[in-house]
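Appendix B. Chain record.
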Amino acid sequence: MKELLSTTDPTKIAFATALLDAEGIAAFQMDVHMSVLEGSIGILPRRLMVRDADLFMARAILKDNGVEL
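Structure tokens predicted for this chain:
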């Protein structure tokens, strides 16, 4: 697994995941439950991971749709 995106914006993660799902690329969100440690203030970034083989295509899809990496 490779890190594709890291952000504190949950809407960015949701949009990127939807774009990748539409293209058949499986994505896995990491650090989703870190709010337990931070007190739900959203300062710790979440990461979006993809398979090594899908990284190039996933970056291209996000770039084509205006998602900053």
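Further analysis of this model is presented in Appendix C.
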